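Fold this: Tubulin-folding cofactor B
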Amino acid sequence: MSTLHVFVVSPDTRSERRFDPHITVGQLKSKLELFTGIPAASQVISVLNSEDNPTIVAQLSDDSKPLGFYSLQDWQVLKVDDSNPSASFTGQLTDVSQVDKFELSDDAYAQRTDSVLAYKQQHKVGRFAPKAEETKTASIPANMTVNARCEVESLEPGLSKRGTIRFVGETKFASGVWVGVEYDEPFGKNDGSVKGDRYFTCRPNYGVFIKPEKVKVGDFPELALDLDEEM
């Protein structure tokens, strides 16, 4: 084994490191001091199989022995404790009990324009986002109600598809708001039901579901069939 891959944990640090198994424990301690902050003379190094298993499988107690002497394996954990924390900064980097906290009242925070709260209010994020019900209401014209007469946008020139609105709301077959229309003529695709769910009732092929933007509400009388044009 040319290089050992291990995790090093201490009261203030955690890192993945590589070491030559031929270096001595004393040499290892000199390297560990650089990033754990624990003086070499105060280091107590334990070997754990993993961070989840706190059982100590070895103690690197002899500074003259090489790491290979302790049969270290890849991805084991070197737990470095400080035997004399009062003489070093161990633990102080993570101890915030002595740090003066900056406190701001709720009212003062609400007045700031550079806060997360201000950003959310400006961009309508989180609890400031429009409620689903508000969004649905805003997308439906006030006059688009059940039993209102309407005309549906058609891709065929000269063809007017008129009918009566029978349903307005959300459906199970697709997301968003849909308008259910009962056509005056059999231009539809259903009888007011889709995939077994009924939203209104009409004759077969007289019912259709359309997005609100394609429906125009108004005083659209039913088109009379001109029998003189039929031969």
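The first strand starts at residue 4 and ends at 9. The first helix runs from residue 25 to 36.
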